[in-house]
Design brief:
237 residues; alpha/beta; four-stranded antiparallel β-sheet; cell membrane; membrane; AAA+_ATPase; ABC transporter-like protein
Length: 237
């Protein structure tokens, strides 16, 4: 099995202009992910976990290093150097991202959000509608809320909608940035069911979870990060 993602010497720092100070977030991060694997990244808050995922998704521009992704459309592409046009395509069709926070266009309903994600993948309206209903039901989002704006949702409802919207696309590579942080046990199990389903369908995942029990029977390997650097060894979970 070949690598779908290879990160080599990744580095990122942030400048606090008001303090004239530079903070190193991650230094010399290297890892590989084979197709179909689920890789977990663990570490304390502020250790640099989310920075790695945001560099892959290009929410952050990297400071150094390479992020090689084996794309269906572009072949091997260095995400650290990819154009904005290439990144827009990859985010729409190949790479998904789930975080704790829901950022959506105003006046877009929950149903429309999920449906748009499916249509972006090239599916017909009828199929998109069926899959939307299935996903909203799976995550137990109250049917009365489907045609409402997410701004009115509770934190847990927003999070479940965010997860539904990303996972319904069945991306080749899915980045999970502590998506279950504020969910109850029942909702966490719903997320786990979808993760297992996606893994069976071949989706590759890179995830951050504070709940190590949640990760235990999902991850192929774990990378532990402390103060912006990986520990020398990785372990299988």
């Amino acid at each position: 099995m070949e690598n779908i993602l290879s990160i080599e010497g990744l580095a990122k720092s942030f400048t606090l202009h008001n303090l004239n100070k530079q903070i190193k977030a991650i230094t010399n991060i290297s890892l590989y992910v084979k197709e179909g694997e689920f890789i977990g990244i663990t570490g304390k808050s502020g250790s640099g976990k989310s920075t790695i995922l945001k560099c892959i998704y290009r929410t952050y521009l990297t400071e150094g290093g390479d992020i090689w992704y084996n794309s269906t459309k572009f072949g091997p592409i260095n995400l650290a150097l990819a154009t904005e046009r290439e990144m827009v395509y990859l985010r729409k069709h190949e790479i998904g991202y789930v975080s704790q926070f829901l950022n959506v266009m105003p006046r877009t309903t929950a149903r429309e959000l999920v449906k748009q994600s499916i249509i972006e993948m090239g599916h017909q309206e009828e199929i998109a509608e069926k899959e939307t209903v299935k996903m909203l039901e799976h995550f137990e989002i109250d049917r009365e809320l489907w045609d409402s704006y997410p701004a009115t949702f509770s934190g847990g409802e927003k999070l479940r909608l965010n997860i539904a919207r990303a996972m319904v696309k069945r991306p080749r590579l899915l980045l999970l940035d502590e998506p279950t942080a504020s969910l109850d046990e029942s909702s966490k199990q719903k997320v786990k069911e979808i993760i297992k389903q996606l893994m069976n369908e071949g989706t590759t995942m890179l995830g951050i979870f504070h709940d190590l029990e949640f990760m235990k029977d999902l991850c192929n390997r774990e990378y532990n990060i402390q103060e912006g650097k990986f520990q020398i060894s990785t372990k299988s979970l």
